[in-house]
Amino acid sequence: MAVVLVNGLVCKDPKLVQANDFFFSGLHLAGNTSNVVGSKVTPVTVAQLPGLNTLGISMVRIDYAPWGINPPHTHPRATEILTVLEGSLQVGFVTSNLENHLITKVLQKGDVFVFPVNLIHFQRNVGYGNAVAIAALSSQNPGVITIANAVFGSKPAIPSDLLAKAFQVDENIIVRMQSKF
């Protein structure tokens, strides 16, 4: 039997499909937030849950330490809708060029906020306790591009003189930023 690919993934023979192809366990577990940004994203995409292939949905659990952040990032293939389960989060996104307008709000437990597809967005725990959110995404493989990692941590590195000109800062600042990624 020939291998059939759908969305670049092997499509399982329907006769061999099992309940576990549509099951994920673990969103009840708090993520380890003892890292430089103070957050942990637990994804449930097609990589973790094969049954999501072709369904156009996925989700994540995000845990935040006090004042932890989910750094500015984009999802190139998905809109995101986030619900706060615990704590208070400042959330926001930036509209596209030329306006680059920041849309931001502080959310409380039970509040919902939408981040349009491919716009840079972020979350920050503005409380003194832990915070937890669940987000749904409109793709089984939403992708994520964390802005700082992409700009300062690319392999090979974006030339520091180019970034210095783009950010209008001294090149030594760029070199220092690149050393952190």
UniProtKB/TrEMBL annotation:
Sequence ranges assigned to domain Cupin type-1 in this UniProt record: 25-175
Localization, UniProt: Secreted, Extracellular space, Apoplast
One cellular component term from this protein's GO annotations in UniProt: apoplast
Keywords: Apoplast, Disulfide bond, Manganese, Metal-binding, Secreted
Matches recorded under Gene3D superfamilies: Jelly Rolls
Binding site for Mn(2+): H73, H75, E80, H121
GO molecular function, one term: manganese ion binding
Protein name, entry field: Germin-like protein
Organism: Camellia sinensis var. sinensis
